[in-house]
Amino acid sequence: MRRFHPAWAVAAVTFVALLGAAGFRATPSVMLQPLHDEFGWSLGTISAAVSVNLLLYGLTAPFAAALMNRFGIRRVAMAALLLVSAGSGLTLWMTQSWQLMLCWGVLVGLGTGSLALGFVATIANRWFVRHRGIVIGVLTAAGATGNLIFLPVLSRIVESDGWRTAALTVSVAALLVVPLIFWRLRDHPADLNMPALGATEIVMPAKPAGGAAGNALRALRDAAKTRPFWLLAGGFAICGATTNGLVGTHFIPAAHDHGMPQTTAAGLLALVGLFDIAGTIASGWLTDRVDSRILLGAYYALRGLSLLALPSLFAATAHPSMLIFILFYGLDWVATVPPTVTLCREYFGESGAIVFGWVFASHQFGAAAAATAAGLVRDQFGNYTMAWYVAGGLAILGAVLSLMLYAGKHLPAVDELTAVRP
């Protein structure tokens, strides 16, 4: 028996890949104002490009999971990182807003979407039986770690050398991860003639029948016949609206409206990433031990209360009350992911990773809507106050949806209602 299971090496490489993909996704919040100043584009226009990115980031996930089933994780991950690098690098030559949509929105959206949480679910479901929850938590934390590393660095680069240097930095960082993926990432434990960590038998992967797109759509069709899917998707749409869409995109310009320097605001947002690492890993540990439906209800409720308090906390300096919000909100940032992945596996079995990809797509629909809506609110009213209050109310609604899952936890799983094909 080997004392070191290769699953841990695969998880480590996956973490690095997710870290690289997170780099460009960390840049919108530090580039909104520089792009506005240089090109004269409104915040609504720039936020629309962010929304395209967020939409494709989510919509790509289920198809990427299906592509990984058909062509292998390694090939899809390398292609995704190349798209991220190309999209970031090509922004150096843009002069029109449609080019921002193409590079920042389409190319990077497709690339990062292929390395999104559907990627995490695929790795965790294939390689881990034991410790699956904690692994999901750690891999999910990679995005927060990317924010922690890239946000302060990119903010200083933008301030000292301009946004083009920051975009080039991200492009090179994503490109450097490609050789590591080629060297160490493997598609399935059976490729090494081993069982998954915690399993006792080697399971040979069955190549799915039909095309990747057809399998992804079939999984959606079957899952959509069930109540749990819609409750999970509704809650996760609210999750996206209250994290990436609103706070991730608009926290820095909102703080700047109150006189806070951009570098200080970027540092606070990076602290959210720091606390998110702890919160997400802890959530993974709790997911292995506590009913995931209860966890989701608590997470959404606490997030809603913190967002309702946020408008009164903005000031020109990072006073203690704001730091308390950063700590509290950061611990809850994506703590919702491990229990949501676990519930998709519980309700939808072997199709859980693909179904989670669709649930994650709803997350990004919510994020895209919030990113655009908050930009329009700022353009119309001159501040973000209304956006924060609406987001707080939505998060409390997300708690209600999660508790409805708990109330109906004895509903039959999807395979008792209709066969979900892998």
TrEMBL record:
Domain called Major facilitator superfamily (MFS) profile: residue spans: 9-410
Subcellular location: Cell membrane
UniProt keyword list: Membrane, Transmembrane, Transmembrane helix
SUPFAM superfamilies referenced in this protein's UniProt entry, alphabetically: MFS general substrate transporter (SSF103473)
Molecular functions (GO terms): transmembrane transporter activity
Pfam families: MFS_1
Membrane topology qualifier: Multi-pass membrane protein
Transmembrane annotation, as ranges: 39-64, 76-93, 99-121, 133-154, 166-185, 229-252, 264-286, 307-331, 351-374, 386-407
GO cellular component terms attached to this protein's record: plasma membrane
Chief subcellular location: membrane
Protein name as annotated: Sugar phosphate permease
